[in-house]
Amino acid sequence: MFSKDNKLENFKDAETVIGASIKVKGNFQGQGSIIIEGALEGSLKTDANILIGEKAKIVANIESKDAIINGEVRGNIKAKNYLSVGGTAKIFGDIQYGEISVEKGAIINGQLLMLSEEHKRNEKNKEETGAEK
Amino acid sequence: MHVYIYDDYLNKGKYNKVINRIEIRLTDLGLNGKIIRLGGIKNIKATIQNEIKLGAKTIIAVGNNQTVGRIIGAIVDTDIYGDFQKKTLLGIIPVGDDNSIAASFGIKNEEEACNILLARRIEKIDLGLVGNHCFLNQATIQSLGTILEIGDYSLEIIERGEVKIINLLSDKNEKIKSSPHDGLLDIYIKTKKKDETRLSAKKFRITNPENKLILDSVAEIETPAEIGIMKDKVNIIVGKDRLFE
Question: If both were cysteines, with which of A52, B130, B179, B205 could B149 make a disulfide (CB 3.0 to 4.6 Å apart)?
Fold first, then answer.
């Protein structure tokens, strides 16, 4: 998990960056961290982290380990570990999270559901087993 | 046996001195071999493949990116690529301009190229593939209107700029990281609005009705085109200052 102070540091070496001039359609799936500054329609999933930029427009369900949402998301979000919702975020959909922080100004229109301790433990175990391999 | 392939343009008088210098240096290093001048040859592919069958262990391109591209097309023939071709080494002696491929391999000039041939530091390099055409460095196309279809998703670019599909970096100042050993092509899109996109893929389809795809600044290909990568396809003699690990 990234610390709240240096969370952007984790994306310095993101494997995938989608700029503001790009429209993505379909099921976008990655292994590493993903930054989206443009538009995406479909679904977005990674085993690592996702950062949705301020001007990004996402119409998709999102699933990741950690996530930072600063733009507009129309769809459900599942951040298995930690979710940071920035002051410029507009979320229209349900959210599942391990831990959450919400900045003043954020718009959330949906249900918030904290993942159970058991679910988090399972995720952590999966990570540790993966790391051992 | 070494076979040196001289490009057509080296017949011009202004290259006489540099060619003489190269030949003297190669003789001093004991690297002399057969010389083939492309100027007088109609079927380059057949000529080079014949030399490989006759036992050429090292084919050396003397010229520029275009020379290297033509020779790779003959060595790595996608239809008949066999054991004898897998063992062939490719060397490069850059002469004149347009030599980004040699620069990627840490070969800065003709004199250094001769020393690098002697040192025989060998790297297996991936090759980009567009239809029947290969590229070593990169393929480029105008970004506006370009659509990339990668597996389950597509990317549409809505601003002017450039799409680079990189196998092997030619500019050490480029911010993107790319390896010619990883079996992946790195897609790097930079638009005039200064935003950047980067991702990797093994194969994809590219479409731009208005513009052509340019391979290694030489060949122009119409789209739609299928782009892929052939892993560790060519053995190249490289310098120690090459632009990759």
Answer: B205
Structure token digits, residue B98: 């347009």
Mean pLDDT, rounded, for B206-223: 92
Binary contact (B153, A18; C-beta < 8 A): no
Question: Which residue on chain B is closest to A35 by alpha carbon?
Answer: B197
Q: Which of B192, B1, B7 is nearest to B94 (CA)?
A: B7
* C-alpha distance from residue A90 to each of A24, A72, A83 (Å): 19, 5, 14
Size of interface A-B (CB pairs under 8 A): 56
* A38–B200 C-beta distance less than 8 A: no
Using CB atoms, pick whichever of A15, A17, A27 lies closest to residue B152.
Answer: A27
Query: Nearest-CA distance from B91 to chain A in Å?
Result: 33
Q: Which domain holds residue A93?
A: 7-132
| Per-residue pLDDT, B78 | 63
pLDDT digits (tens, 9 = 90+) for B15-57: 999 999 999 999 999 999 999 998 878 888 889 888 888 888 8
**Average predicted confidence (pLDDT) for chain B:** 90
On whether residue A2 sits in a domain, the answer given is no
Q: Which ipTM value was assigned to this complex?
A: 0.85
> How far is Cα B49 from Cα B71, in angstroms, rounded to an integer?
10
Q: Give chain A's domain count.
A: 1
Q: Does A32 touch chain B (CB under 8 A)?
A: no
Are residues B154 and A38, on separate chains, in Cβ contact within 8 Å? no
Asked if B102 and B243 count as a contact pair (C-beta separation under 8 A), the reply is no
What are the chain A neighbours of B159 within 8 Å (beta carbons)? 21
Contact A15 B200 (CB under 8 A): yes
A63-83 pLDDT, tens digit per residue, is 999 999 999 999 999 999 999
The domain made up of B2-120 is a member of CATH 3.50.50.60: no
CATH number for the domain whose boundaries are B133-231: 2.60.200.40
Per-residue DSSP letter, A5: S
pLDDT of res. B206: 97
